[in-house]
Amino acid sequence: MSILEVEKLTKRYGQESAVEDLSFVLEKETATALIGPNGAGKTTSLSMLADLLSPSSGKITVAEGLTIGFLPQYPQFFPWLTALEFTEMAAKLSGIESKKARLQASRTLGFVGLESAMNKKTGTFSGGMKQRLGLAQAIVHQPKLLLLDEPISALDPTGRREIMDLLKALQRDTTILYSTHILNDAEEMTDQLLFMKDGRLIEQGSLNNVKKRHASPHIRIRFANPNQAAEFAGRLTWERELKGAVVFLPVYKNGPSMQQVLEVLSSEKQDILGVDYQTASLEEIFLKVVAAK
Ligand SMILES: Nc1ncnc2c1ncn2[C@@H]1O[C@H](COP(=O)(O)OP(=O)(O)OP(=O)(O)O)[C@@H](O)[C@H]1O
């Protein structure tokens, strides 16, 4: 079931388009990663979805009664407020009754791991703590759709791990759309990928489908030395590529299966160090797709 549909969304500044003809659908309780180089239009798109920026044209349709939480790329906190005061304020602004706001704020701060820092002023917070607090203000009213602009990009690996784990826990009953340029992390939590460049969507689909289209999987056979690899490659009838002591066999319709390769290798006299199946990472695919468009 879709909870949000975007049709031909466009934002122009004068002659320039920040976002052009963007169309996609968010299915309920899925995670979508919006990726693209700097200036691709990610922030502009998320700001339009969060209703902070009006589109020049196009249409956004949301499911009836949909509640939305938004974490901006650079969230602003009032340094003189404590984390609890700030989150309570966010709770009230998002429509939670005053009586319940404090309890809901403290529960949310517990969920994001800020329980012990709840009564500290936000001005003293580290980058990682601020990112958790930003997440807390975005989820305090338990929205059904969570829009996150670069929620992990400014964090160190430990901070990224922690925020990714929180997002994964949230994803069980929340639909998440987040932008990022940390593609290894995106690979971990994504039902749908949206690749943007110069304001346009240049590729979209599930991780598996995008990989199938671009990953050019191959079987990698590692020999003890380049001479052995070259000698082996010379005897093959399959399409192959030789790189030093490694032979790569592309896997596609007419290529060999792993089983066929293992059968051939079982009678080999050469020293084989290893055989495995390799596919490109999302990072490699992204660079390829962005360079091609
Ligand atoms: N208020 C504005 N006026 C004019 N141009 C703008 C405005 N806001 C954004 N742009 C332009 O629109 C394009 C898309 O910007 P946007 O911030 O959405 O990209 P982004 O993908 O979020 O980039 P980043 O990864 O660097 O945050 C850029 O070329 C930017 O210069």
Automatic annotation (TrEMBL):
InterPro entries the record matches: AAA+_ATPase (IPR003593), ABC_transporter-like_ATP-bd (IPR003439), ABC_transporter-like_CS (IPR017871), DrrA1/2-like_C (IPR025302), P-loop_NTPase (IPR027417)
Annotated SUPFAM superfamilies: P-loop containing nucleoside triphosphate hydrolases
GO molecular function term, any single one: ATP binding
Domain ABC transporter, chain residue ranges per copy: 4-223
Protein family (similarity comment): Belongs to the ABC transporter superfamily.
Record-given protein name: ABC-2 type transport system ATP-binding protein
Keywords: ATP-binding, Nucleotide-binding, Transport
Highest taxon of the lineage: Bacteria
Pfam family, one: DrrA1-3_C
